[in-house]
Structure formats: C-alpha cells, structure tokens
UniProtKB/TrEMBL annotation:
Region span, Disordered: 442-465
Spans traversing the lipid bilayer: 38-62, 74-91, 103-122, 128-146, 167-191, 197-217, 238-263, 275-293, 305-325, 331-358, 379-402, 414-435
Topological relation to the membrane, as annotated: Multi-pass membrane protein
Gene Ontology CC entries for this record: membrane
This protein's name: MFS transporter
Database matches in InterPro entries: MFS, MFS_trans_sf, NO3_transporter
Pfam families on file: MFS_1
Keywords: Membrane, Transmembrane, Transmembrane helix
Intracellular or extracellular location(s): Membrane
GO molecular function, one term: nitrate transmembrane transporter activity
C-alpha cells in the first residue's frame, strides 16, 4: 500500500516522503513523527473500543423490567462484533483514500452516532429490535481498529512493527476494561437505573479525540490504495491461515470481553454489581500485555510465541471447564482471566507475524532491500484489514456459541469444550505451517532463489516471523 513516488497531495499535514527503513531518516526525523502519530492513534482507537464494547456494559443495567432474557442479551452483545468485523475491510482502505489523520478524525467523530442513540433508547419499554439496531451502530468502533493498525503499520520500520502495533492495539484494547470500570462506578454509586451516565462520560471524550487527531496527526502521501495488493492478499493462503489464528487470539479476547459479565450472571448467579466488579480485570490484563506479545515476537519470532500461547490457552480452558463443572467461581476466575492474558500475548504475536510473512515471501522471490520492504508493506497492509475483519468475527462466534450453550444446557461448559478443540486446531496449524522444518531466515538459502528447490516461493522459512 505504499509507492516510491506519488503526486503531491494538497492540504495541511501531508508528508510527501516517508522511508522508515532508512536508519538515518528514522533517527533524525521519522521516529519522532511516528511516535506522535502513534500516541493520538491510540487515544482514538481506545475510545473506539470503548464504544464498540458499550453493550457489554449496557446489558448489566438491563434488569427484568427490560424484558430481555439471557439468550437475547448474548445476541445483543454479538451484534456489534458482526458489524465491526464487516466494517474493518472498508476502514482499512479508507486510510489510503483519505489519509491516516483525516480518517482518524472522521472515524472518531462517527462514534458520536452510536453514543447519542444509545443514550436516547436506554430505558425500559424500548423494543428489542430497537436495541439490536442501536447495538449494531456501535460496530463503527470496531472498524476503527483496522484503520488505526493500517495507518501505524505504514509509519514504522519492520524491526519496530511488533512493539508499535502491540502498543497501538493494546492501548486501544484497554478501552474495553475502561468502559467496564466506568459501568461499575455508575452501578456502584448511582445504581443500575442510570445507564446514561456512562454515555455522559464518553460524549465529550469523543469530541476531544477527534480534535486532538486534527491538531497533531499526519497523513502519509506515499500510502496508496492498491486494488492489486488487496486481490493478491485475498488470494494468498497465508492471509486466511493468519485469519484463523487471529480468530483464536483476538476473537477470543473480544468475544470473552463482551460475554464475561453475562457468563458470571448466568453461570454463577452474580448480581449486576458483582459481575461488573470482576468483568474489567481480564480485558485490562489482556490489553496491557499485548505489547509484550509483540516485543516477544520481535525477539523470538511470532510463530513460536503464537504456538506456545495457543497451547497455554488450551490448558487454561481445561481449568475453566473443570471450574464450571465444579461450580467453583475462584478457580473459574483464575482460568478465565488467564485466557484473557494469553489472548493478549497472542494478539501481539500474531499481528507481528503478518508483515514478517510477506517480507519472507518477498525475499523468497529474490527481492532485496527497499524492493523487498515495499512488497512486504504493500501486501501486509492489505492483508491486515482482511485478517482483522475475520478475527473480529470470531468474537461473534464466541457469543453465539455461549448463547446456544446456555439456551440448551443452561451452562457455559459445552461452549468452553468447543473452544478447547479450536485452540488445539490453531496450535496444530501454527506448527504445521510456520514452524515444522522452518529455518531462520538469516541461515536460510531462501534469500537466494534456488532453482533446484521447488519450495522457495511457495514455502519460505517462517521461524522468525
């Protein structure tokens, strides 16, 4: 999604030349600009995540007087994940069309729509259909992630992407526990009859985020939409393999974040206040540790960290299944919060893999230097939107599985068993595709095409991605 030469774009805050792989440029100018954009990208994405997860909080305010049962609430919190996942694809390409700064302003301001409409309808007597429509509007907050990650991906050199993308995503993800903490504060002080107080906090914050983006962010003129890159990424098997893995990491994080409070209420008969006092812990820890996953991936390879993460997630799920069967809330919390922490690590590691995979493919094709870096940026930028969209839909799947589990078995145990099987599949895929027989790129002859080896382009070494 970058081009070496571009026609100048008119207007303020457009950067015409950008080469983060040039160490001199990066040291003298690039790092300072990239860091400034990262900070305000995180702020807008943070609020976007809060609005996206708004209904995971609103359902805690919905007592019997609202006339919505447990199955209906699970479906209600699933709706934003569906819309958010779909919107991630067009949001990815909006960065190049409008500019990263400009689109951040637009996408942040758009969050006013679901916030204002939620404040208008959040009262007993509102129809379930109306709640579903308003919940769907919060999906725009989920779209913010894709545009933010695509934008920041263009600012940073490959060697810094794991940490930068981890910070950007982790800072955004923290929006989930923050709005849950605000919900807890409102329930604990004003009571469950005042959900609009949560919206009163966010309406001015949305305006502030949009204004700060306008004042301090930049557009990168070299970033261009490339329909050829999008088609090439969609045809590449690695895009869909990474989508599967991202369902396992981010899909778990967002799905569990939205469902945690409802699981506590229905599995362990917690009151809204008791549930709200616990729901923020897992998303908070998972968000904080996401940059660590990126840093570990930078140091040891994203594939290795991802494999160990899925293995640990399977073990944590076994703990949750045991606790559910024994109806032990303390053991359940240990296992479930561990799932949040591990999904956060996995989020950072899997997203680091994406640019590394396409860089490895470029080298395997015989490309070198800036030509290889340009190819990697071009394909990874396009792939991130697709992978992010599919991963978000994993959150929809988790809530629908919970809905069916509680409707049929009155327990979340069958849902967790199915998640355990899925993590086993993800572990096997990670090992088989990215680690089995892989050699580090620095020691691999894949950098020089070998006419005697039919595998270089099809199966480059991925141990370090």
């Amino acid at each position: 999604m970058t081009a070496p030469t571009t026609a100048a774009r008119k207007g303020g805050r457009w950067i015409e030349q950008w080469d983060p792989e040039d160490e001199t440029f990066w040291r003298e100018k690039g790092e300072r600009i990239a860091t400034r954009n990262l900070v305000f990208s995180i702020l807008s994405e943070h609020i976007g995540f809060s609005i996206w997860s708004l209904w995971s909080v609103m359902v805690l305010f919905m007592g019997p007087e609202y006339g919505v049962d447990a199955a209906g609430k699970f479906f209600l919190v699933a709706m934003p994940t569906l819309v958010g996942g779909i919107l991630r694809v067009p949001y990815t390409f909006a960065v190049a069309r409008f500019g990263g700064r400009n689109w951040t302003i637009i996408s942040a301001a758009t969050l006013l729509v679901p916030a204002i409409t939620a404040a208008a309808v959040m009262e007993p007597g509102t129809s379930y259909t109306t709640f579903m429509v308003v919940a769907a509007l919060t999906g725009v907050g989920g779209g913010n992630f894709a545009s933010s990650m695509t934008n920041i991906n263009s600012f940073y050199p490959l060697r810094k992407k794991g940490w930068a993308l981890g910070l950007n995503a982790g800072g955004g993800n923290i929006g989930v526990p923050v709005i849950q903490l605000i919900g807890l504060l409102v329930i604990g002080t004003a009571g469950a009859a005042h959900p609009r107080l949560v919206l009163a906090v966010y309406l001015p914050l949305i305006v502030v985020a949009a204004a700060l983006s306008a004042l301090f962010m930049d557009n990168l003129a070299p970033v261009r939409n490339d329909s050829g890159a999008a088609k090439e990424a969609a045809r590449d098997a690695h895009t869909w393999i990474m989508s599967l893995l991202y369902i396992g990491t981010f899909g778990s994080f967002i799905g569990y974040s939205f469902a945690f409070g409802l699981v506590l209420q229905n599995q362990f008969d917690r009151t809204p206040l008791q549930a709200a006092s616990l729901t923020f812990i897992g998303p908070l820890l998972g968000s904080l540790i996401r940059p660590v996953g990126g840093r570990l991936a930078d140091a040891h390879g994203g594939a290795k960290i991802t494999l160990w993460t899925f293995a640990a997630m399977a073990a944590a799920t076994l703990v949750v299944v045991y606790a559910s069967a024994q109806k032990s809330l303390p053991v359940f919390l240990v296992g479930f919060i561990a799932l949040f922490v591990l999904s956060g690590l996995g989020n950072g590691a899997t997203f680091k893999m994406i640019p590394g995979i396409f860089q490895a493919k470029a080298i395997a094709r015989g490309l070198k230097g800036e030509e290889a870096a340009s190819y990697g940026r071009r394909l990874s930028g396009a792939a991130m939107g697709l992978i992010g969209a599919v991963g978000a839909l994993g959150g929809l799947g988790i809530n629908l599985v919970f809905r069916e589990s509680f409707a049929s078995a009155h327990s979340g145990t069958p849902a967790f068993v199915s998640f355990l099987a899925f993590y086993a599949v993800c572990s096997a895929v990670t090992w088989a595709v990215y680690l089995r027989g892989a050699r580090p790129a620095s020691a691999s002859p894949a950098a020089e095409p070998d006419t005697h080896d039919p595998r270089p382009e099809r199966q480059p070494a991925y141990a370090d991605v």
